Amino acid sequence: MNATQQLFLHGSISKALLKLGIPIILINVLQSAYQLTDAFWVGRLGAAQVAAVSISMPVTFLVIAIGAGLAMAGAILSAQYMGAGQQDKVNHVAAQTMLMVTLTAIVLGGIGYMLSPYFLTLLGVEDAVYGDALKFMHVSFIGVIFVFIYAMFQSLMRGIGQTKVPLIIVSVTVLLNFVLDPLFIFGYGSFQGLGVMGAALATLVTQSLAALAGVIIFLRGRHGIQLQLKSFYPDWQYIKQAFFLGAPGSIELSARAFGLIIMSFLVASFGTQTIASYGVGSNVLQMVMIPAMGLSMAVSTLVGQNMGAGNPKRAAQITQLASLWGLLGLSFVGGVAYYFAEHLVAFFIPDDGAVIAKGAKFIRIMCLTWGGIGVQLCVVAAFRASGNMLNAMLVALLSQGVVQFPAAYILSKHTQLGDHGIWYSFAITNVVIALITYAWFAQGSWQKTILTKEDKDIAKISQEAFIEEGSH
């Protein structure tokens, strides 16, 4: 057992969380720079072009979410097998998951490419936006395969506790994207710019290079996972098992994607100022989520490895400490945001006093409950990492379908709050879902699932978990 594994399985929990969490947070910050770079340069083209990108993103995110559950299954199993000391199983899982994710990406990307015109028609896109949106979608769906492969590489590396290599790759590709974006969008010299499609093409090039780097690293085997070409021969039994484990993850992420689309329709019914305020508030929330997501991903790796090592008690201690950090850390950030709300909104929209006032109201209503997000993300990460994907799925369905959207609709449409009712739905959801998820975690049934036992079948475990949760 090397020093890193010793720390993860037996050392200081605080040190382990920091060793994993800080690089993951840096990776998340850099990955968010992809979207910021695209938004910066596309914004120089005009409002119609910005709308073309905005309308395309939720649709492509939904398609990616459908296949992402399979990637989750591979990351969970690689972490648990690493904790169990079964390196051959780590390699096998990595190869089969890469194969499965690649095939899934080809199918979903092809379907998305063909259905793009129908998506845009269904969304009622204006003629001025339609052409650019279709081009952006087509290139994005072609690039789905590279997004999937690199995301899988990153998840598998995180599962075994290796975060430095993905950080280096992301750093290089973000810098490259920053150079390629203006070149492909506006052109240079005799090269004619491609407009909105250029932004999607720049992302496709950088993601394909990242995916290629990931595959080469796996084949060389110098960083914890060793793949050979023969490893990619399909193991249909594993693929069947991973499907049972990963399907709830796909439903979970799809539910969150649908939730974003439905909330966008509700927000749009209140007009331009509300849409702009919601957009700014969502951007602020995404920035706040970056450290919280980094912490939750660290929890996922540590819980997965400790469950694989047969130590569910330490897995619970990791989750408890991380949840406390998330609660206190995001509550502090929320307190700062409360006092600087106008400045945060003005950073994005400096010249519109009405939007600044409305956006600041949105931030102030929800920010003091951000600690609940930290708790929820850490507990859900523990559920996933232990193999209880159904728990995570049910939390997402409860959050989006039972709490947030109904609260937003009722408060905004059937009370005097108006669009402020949408803002209050965020605060209500943060508190209610945090309490429910932590109570479920404290109940302890999630600790009984260990996927790496040889006498267990993943499909059987998933089915039994579904029956058990349905009986509560």
UniProtKB/TrEMBL annotation:
UniProt-listed InterPro entries: MATE_fam, MdtK-like, Membrane_Transporter-Flippase
Transmembrane residue ranges: 16-34, 54-77, 98-116, 136-153, 165-188, 194-219, 257-278, 284-303, 324-341, 361-383, 390-410, 422-441
Keyword Membrane in annotation: yes
CDD domains: MATE_like_12
Keyword terms of this UniProt record: Cell membrane, Membrane, Transmembrane, Transmembrane helix, Transport
Protein origin, superkingdom: Bacteria
Membrane topology type: Multi-pass membrane protein
GO molecular function: antiporter activity; xenobiotic transmembrane transporter activity
Pfam families named among the record's database cross-references: MatE
PANTHER family in alphabetical order: MULTIDRUG RESISTANCE PROTEIN NORM-RELATED, MULTIDRUG RESISTANCE PROTEIN YPNP-RELATED
Protein name: MATE family efflux transporter
Organism: Pseudoalteromonas nigrifaciens
